[in-house]
Specification:
Pfam families: Glyco_transf_4, Glycos_transf_1. It comes from Micromonospora matsumotoense. Residues 22-196 form the Glycosyltransferase subfamily 4-like N-terminal domain. GO terms for molecular function: hexosyltransferase activity. The structure is a single chain. With 437 residues, the protein is α/β, with parallel strands linked by helices. The protein folds into two domains: 2-191 and 377-424, 3-Layer(aba) Sandwich (Rossmann fold), CATH 3.40.50.2000; 210-373, Glycogen Phosphorylase B (Rossmann fold, 3-Layer(aba) Sandwich), CATH 3.40.50. 39% of the residues lie in helices and 15% in strands. It has helices at residues 23-36, 83-94, 107-118, 133-140, 150-158, 169-177, 224-234, 254-266, 283-289, 304-311, 322-327, 342-353, 356-373, 376-390, 407-421, and strands spanning 2-6, 40-46, 55-58, 61-66, 102-106, 125-128, 163-166, 185-187, 210-215, 237-242, 272-276, 292-295, 316-319, 334-337. The protein has an eight-stranded mixed beta sheet with strand order 3-4-2-1-5-6-7-8, sandwiched between helices. Helix 6 (169-177) links the parallel strand 7 and strand 8. Helix 7 packs across helix 12 (342-353). The longest helix has 18 residues, at 356-373. The radius of gyration is 22 Å and the shape is globular.
């Protein structure tokens, strides 16, 4: 099968300083696994450096860099005006000697470009959002900093694709609230590199105190402030926060300063350590050093950190939402607590740190769960079956042009839409569409 993966902002060749992470890793691993299954895979990313080759072979698949937009790294929001041009470039490319049988858009920018490219063809489009603007705005409130066009364009994109891939049950529900039919949603969780993340191997140095580890960017919405407040209830333990800028830049980083000031005011400054950015290929050593990994973001679709920790045999205490709620089986591989409930979070961490046998059992069960349900081989296999189902079943559709919008009006309209949809909100875990494909 000829498969085109469009990821304009985060292709697999963009992490020159180390292994691909996040969306980069997802696209790279899916492309590599599909190529290993005998498929002809091409990945399309924007060319943001004129020194880069126009095309390169990586891991059995080809990466093509599209010469659209500024020849320099550009914020995703600033790529919106270039979507039609990117779509036209892809359409011309695919009208030549190589035409994909199925196109898979990644993130909303990649999906819009893919939909523009195939709108006058019968090539089916599969779409993975990785995150939804409406979810981020709901959970972050005024801290949401996404572009005003994102939410209406994501809604328009849903009308132009054949199937949307959700990475968790919460996202299945959200996509249906946005107007997509249940039969057009497939739930395919992300994968974990179990050869990199496993229980055996070196662990980062630590002292004799119990260690709680939090991994994630230093920005509002990642929930480190909830953890710092919860430390008052935990007792004699340390909280290590990994993520953000390099360690030597933490002193001038606004969010790092805010978290340190919060720790001072809360009286737990001697228990909280910010270590800054950790290379992805060194993260496993940090997971192995922890007694518990805490996952408390305001929202996480894929639940990547919880899965990586579980693969390393470390129990997770996390907020019961998004991909975390799907990955963590409560009282089997870890504990789930209500989002934002700092008291329950603190008491749950305290009890689990005091329960050596419980942590041991959770850790073993966590490894088994990841290896059975969250490998990249399983993710690629599910996508392969999905592609086979949609090939040849598409009719051309209209894709709305990219236009400016009234952000304030969108806030009012979307709040009304969500309020109306919530009166008939679906139950977690149920879907008429393919689950796990």
């Amino acid at each position: 099968m000829r498969v085109g993966l469009v990821c304009a902002h985060a292709g697999p060749s963009r992490s020159a300083e180390g292994p691909p992470v996040g969306t980069h890793e997802h696209v790279a691993r899916v492309a590599g696994e599909l190529a290993g299954r005998g498929h002809d895979v091409r990945v399309y990313e924007r060319r943001d450096d004129p020194a880069l080759a126009a095309s390169v072979e990586i891991g059995g698949y080809r990466v093509e860099r599209v010469p659209v937009g500024p020849a320099q790294p550009t914020a995703t929001a600033d790529l919106v005006p270039y979507v039609p041009e990117l779509g036209r470039w892809l359409a011309e490319r695919w009208a030549g000697e190589w035409t994909p049988e199925v196109v898979h858009g990644h993130y909303w920018i990649g999906g819009l470009a893919a939909a523009h490219a195939v709108r006058e063809t019968n090539i089916p489009v599969v779409q993975t959002f990785h995150s939804l603007g409406v979810e981020q705005r709901r959970h972050l409130g005024r801290q949401y900093a996404g572009p005003g066009e994102r939410i209406p364009l994501e809604r328009a994109l849903l009308r132009a694709v054949d199937v949307a891939v959700a990475q968790c049950n919460d996202e299945v529900d959200e996509l249906t609230r946005m107007g997509l039919r249940r039969t057009s949603v497939a739930m395919v969780p992300t994968g974990v590199d179990v050869e990199r993340f496993h229980p055996d191997g070196e662990a980062a140095p630590r002292d004799r105190r119990a260690r709680i580890l939090s991994v994630g960017g230093l920005s509002p919405g990642h929930g480190q402030d909830d953890l710092i407040r919860a430390m008052r209830l935990v007792g004699d333990a340390e909280l290590v926060i990994a993520g953000g800028p390099p360690a030597d830049q933490l002193a001038t980083h606004a969010e790092a300063r805010r978290l340190r000031e919060l720790a001072e005011r809360t009286g737990v400054a001697d228990q909280v350590t910010l270590v800054g950015a950790v290379p992805h290929d060194q993260l496993a050593t940090w997971y192995r050093s922890a007694d518990v990994v805490a996952c408390t973001p305001h929202y996480s679709c894929a639940g990547r950190v919880s899965l990586e920790a579980m693969a390393c045999g470390v129990p997770v205490v996390g907020y019961a939402m998004g991909g975390i709620a799907d990955a963590v089986v409560d009282e089997v591989t870890g504990r789930l607590v209500p989002p934002g409930d700092v008291r329950t979070l603190g008491m749950t961490l305290r009890r689990l740190l005091a329960d050596n046998a419980g942590r041991f059992a959770y850790g073993h069960a966590a490894v088994d769960r990841v290896r059975c349900s969250y490998t990249w081989e399983r993710t690629a296999g599910a996508l392969e079956r999905l592609y086979e189902r949609v090939v040849g079943r598409r009719t051309p559709v209209e894709v709305p042009d990219v236009v400016p919008v009234d952000v304030d009006q969108l806030v009012e309209d979307d709040a009304a839409t969500v309020a109306e949809a919530d009166t008939d909100a679906p139950v977690r875990g149920t879907t008429a569409g393919p689950v796990g494909v």
